[in-house]
Each structure stands twice: as C-alpha cells, then as structure tokens.
Amino acid sequence: MILPIRAFGDAVLRKHCHEINKDYPELKSLVDNMFETMHSANGIGLAAPQVGLDIRLFVVDVSPLAEDEDYADIADELKDFRKVFINAKILEESGEEWKFNEGCLSIPDVREDVKRKETILIEYYDENFVKHTDTFSDMRARVIQHEYDHIEGILFTDHLSSLKKKLVKGKLMKISHGDVSVTYKMRFPK
C-alpha cells in the first residue's frame, strides 16, 4: 500500500524517534509499504517519520543508481543494496567530507549540496531483528546518513549554510502550505 509522504513543516519530521522491538505491530507490512511508497515516488531511501511514524526505522534501495553511468565504478556494490534499518545507531563517521547534491521526498523541488563523511560504521537490526554492525562507503553511506538524520529529527536543509537556508526559505514555506506539484501521494501540514 502506498502511504502519503509527509511534507516539510509536518511536526513528525522534527521528532527524535524512539526504538521499537520485534513485536511492533504489523512491522512486515509497514516495511513492505515503505518500500512500495519509496519506489512509487522514485526515491532511494525513506524513513518512518516521512510516513508519519516517530520510530527508528528506515529503508534504502540504491539499486537504481547501478544503472547510472556516473556510478559505473561502484555499480556492483549498488545493484543489490536494498536494506532495512531498525533502531540504527551510527557509531563512527570517517574519511573525507564530500559534497553531493541531495534532495528529499518530503522536500520536493529543493536540491542542495550537502557535505558528509565518506564512510560510516553503523549498528542496526534488519527486518528479522537480526543485529548487524557494518561499514558502508560511497553513495550507500550518504543515503544511510540522510535517512538516519530523519530518525534524529534532522532534514538535509539543516546542513546548509545560513545563506543557503535563506535562499530556500521561500520554497520551504510553499511546500509547507501545499503549494508544490508532485507525482506522488503527499500529506501537507494543517
């Protein structure tokens, strides 16, 4: 089932999310719905707050990037990278910071360069509540960091300079008032 994606300005996007346990109601359905919602919006990551839930859960699927010639050198790493992250904790960020033009399904039509570290060490549970501690680099790390920010109540626009924040403020206000055209289901703040 495709869920409506919460737009910038919705209070749930600013919540520090709480952990869940393996008995969380309808967890499998929720994960399936999040993947379906993300794919229908042509996204590569989606966090629970973006569908109105303040829980520490996000999904990523960067496999579409494997077809992009810009990522030919890491296509093998990207092509099957589809994961569920529950109760994630980034333990370490390392390497050089690199800029990349990010966007967000909750903030349509806004894209800006964001600096992030190139490698992360993260602890999380998968959809079967098996615990993992893994290291990820490249676009995988970036997408995970972006989605991880969501469960911490942080949006990619929070990483922008004061000047850039001022420049996108008008667009953000329009989004929060529903004055944006999207091809996917959205829920705007009241």
Description of the structure:
- The structure is a single chain.
- This protein has 190 residues and is of the alpha+beta class.
- The protein has one domain (5-174): Peptide deformylase (Peptide Deformylase).
- It is 25% helix and 32% strand.
- It contains four helices and seven strands, in the order E-H-E-E-H-E-E-E-H-H-E.
- Fe cation binds at residues 104, 146, 150.
- Its EC number is 3.5.1.88.
Low-confidence stretches: none
Total number of domains:
1
Helix content: 10-25%
What oligomeric state do the depicted chains represent?
single chain
Cofactor: Fe(2+)
Function: Removes the formyl group from the N-terminal Met of newly synthesized proteins. Requires at least a dipeptide for an efficient rate of reaction. N-terminal L-methionine is a prerequisite for activity but the enzyme has broad specificity at other positions.
Organism: Chryseobacterium salivictor
Pfam families: Pep_deformylase
Q: Descriptors for this entry?
A:
alpha+beta; peptide deformylase activity; 190 residues; EC 3.5.1.88; 4 helices; iron; single chain; 5-stranded antiparallel sheet; Peptide Deformylase; Peptide_deformylase; two-stranded parallel ribbon
Please outline the helices and strands.
Layout: E1 5-6, H1 27-40, E2 45-47, E3 57-61, H2 75-78, E4 82-104, E5 107-125, E6 131-137, H3 138-151, H4 162-176, E7 186-187
Parallel strand pairs: 1-7
Antiparallel strand pairs: 2-3, 3-4, 4-5, 5-6
